Amino acid sequence: MNQNEKWTKKTIALVGNPNVGKSTLFNSLTGLHQHTGNWPGKTVELARGTVRHKGVLYQITDLPGCYSLSSCSQEEEIARDFLLTQPPDLVIAVCDACCLERGLLLVLQLMALSDHVILCVNLMDEAEKRGIHIRTDILTSLLGIPVAACSARNRGGTAPLLIALEKAAKSADTKITLPEPGNGLVSSADLVRLSEEICSQAVDFDNAAYDRKDRKLDALFTGRLTGFPILFLLLLFLFWITVSGASLPSALLSDCLSSLEGRLLGAAQNLGLPAALYEPVICGVYRISSWVVSVMLPPMAIFFPLFTLLEDSGYLPRIAFNLDRCFQKCCTCGKQALTMCMSLGCSAVGVTGCRIIDSPREKLIAVLTSCLIPCNGKFPAFLTLITLFAAGGRRGPAASLLTAFCLAGTLLFCTGTALFASFLLSRTLLRGMPSSFTLELPPYRRPKIGQVILRSMLDRTLFVLGRALTIAAPAGLLIWALANVRTGDVSLLARLVALLDPLARIFGLDGTILTAFILSLPANEILIPLMLMIYMGNSSLLDIADPQIIFYVFAENGWTWQTALCTALFLLMHWPCAATCLTIHKETGSLKWTLAAVLLPTGMGLLACLLCRLLFDCLPYPI
Ligand SMILES: Nc1nc2c(ncn2[C@@H]2O[C@H](COP(=O)(O)OP(=O)(O)OP(=O)(O)O)[C@@H](O)[C@H]2O)c(=O)[nH]1
Ligand SMILES: [Mg+2]
Which chain positions lie within coiled-coil regions (predicted)? Predict the structure, then answer.
């Protein structure tokens, strides 16, 4: 007999307005790691988990946030369809204690739909801080349903909900009736009036102007004169900390992993294993994996927590608000700024995030332009190019600041190219008017630093690293094979380089660079080691940490400022990595649009490289 069959089973749906803490509640109950953050619309599809409590196995579904059940948006449609087609045993209606009145509208709609609703008033800690007091006893008597006051983010903050669940689970049919005038309420005007009435009795405010501090911060972060400079300074700070903090751990990690490689090789030789057996594994799979770990792990372990702090504080929707005017001019949606922020971590995540955009046309534009925002995988190669050519191979605080400045500038440039591409698409293939943009600006929240570090390490850093590794490891094997399988006296890799060289030179690159770009389709992180390997005629990837040596190798192979600039441009604008292509295909369900997502950035990149080359050709002397 299945273990679970001993338990009474109950299905539960978590429903509520966006950004009220449904996923935080879900994570706290189930121990899973759904994406949470301080902006509305993060959860875009159903997430399921279980919790066992006092003899009952609860199967919980976290639904996307919705304001009503009238299915205006895709998320509302998903939530409503789920409730209608798979009615759960219990519905937990989650409300934000700081704006209960709005949440109650949905609660009343849910009560009309289901007899088994529990009200969970979440964010009680925040409400207390703002001087908002919720009288749960009055809510219980007025609504006639169990009410639990929770602080899902805090330890033990979901205990009242478990008690409410326990009560509801014991009574097989919790009969819930709407208060008078109640049953059969359909008019939204009636619902609004009713929730106003309930709140006037159940909510006390110490200070009616409780959100004055938020408004002051908004004037600063979204002001016409201050919004963009603050955004740039924040980006600069983020990159500076990442760059200056990551270089030492990266070098240490690289030393450790390469010394381990030496030992592994030694051990394999001592055991008398044939070279054909251990070389592909150690010099192919292990070497590429250790490169990916040492190059990616330290910057990500710094960047993601900092980014999550920004996300949890509520700053991301303000970026979307600031950029909305630019997006409107390009006939697209301001929410695209949020999906671009997601793409910074990983383009595939950004593509999935495009579901928060309601209009199919604008969603497609966001998907097609998502890889124009450089993801974490592109940063190692870009950092190397900046360190070599802009910072002249120097290290130290000043060089870190210059590098951070270049990175922040690059990000603005990339935002510009994404806007330009969106504009082109909205004037050609995807014509149409911009839809109205309703994104709620959430209150500023003080993030929990410890939780942020832990969550961003587990949910983001290790997830992205794990995915890069699963793709890079087999790629290491393939690259090793290409470099070692020979026809005549020449390896397959050398033949490919020679074949591509004439074409690459038209665009200011060379055969090696273009080959490295093609072979790093699985993961952009391996671009620079691949180039070094091909230039040095090596049969396996090279992990050279010293910028002076890399500079020397590049210079020996004819690199100039023009080559560096063209490589950087093509790095920023070329086909999405394999994982992103697959995600685009999954999201659009169309080979045509997946191909368009490949061709658009590649076309833009080649054009930019060509222009750059022609510009350099016009110079009176080569640099
Ligand atoms: N202070 C405080 N913050 C909370 C609490 N519960 C959630 N949060 C924060 O509120 C924000 C939103 O939480 P989520 O769980 O992502 O909200 P959601 O309802 O799932 O949001 P959508 O999926 O976008 O609809 C996050 O920054 C959480 O850390 C709480 O009880 N107290
Ligand atoms: Mg959620």
Answer: none
pTM of the model: 0.81
Q: What Rg, from alpha-carbon coordinates, does the chain have?
A: 28
Report the residue among 24, 34, 128, 315 best suited for mutation to probe ligand 1: largest number of ligand atoms under 8 A from its CB. 24
Cβ-in-10-Å burial (0-12, 13-18, 19+) of 290 comes to: buried
Question: Ligand 2 is a single-atom ion; what residues have CB below 5 A from it?
Answer: 22-23, 43
Distance 148 CA to ligand 1 centre (A): 16
Distance 519 CA to ligand 1 centre (A): 41
Q: Are 132 and 59 in contact (CB under 8 A)?
A: no
Q: How many residues does the chain have?
A: 623
What is the Cα–Cα distance from 183 to 187, expressed in whole angstroms? 12
Tell me the pLDDT tens digit for each residue of 284-299. Answer: 788 878 877 887 788 8
Is 38 close to ligand 1, i.e. is its CB under 6 Å away?
A: yes
Is any ligand 1 atom within 6 A of the Cβ of residue 511? no
The finding on whether 152 has its CB within 6 A of some atom of ligand 1 is: yes
Tally Cβ neighbours within 10 Å of residue 423: 18
What SS3 state is found at 16? Answer: strand
**3 state DSSP class of 91:** strand
Distance CA 192, CA 107 (A): 11
Q: What is the second-level CATH architecture of the domain 3-210? A: 3-Layer(aba) Sandwich (3.40)
Q: Where are the domains of the chain?
A: 3-210, 227-439+451-618
125: Cβ–Cβ under 8 A, 6 or more apart, which residues? Answer: 151, 153, 154, 157
Q: Tell me the ipTM for this assembly.
A: 0.99
The pLDDT tens digits for 533-582 are: 888 876 666 666 677 788 888 999 999 999 999 999 999 999 999 889 99
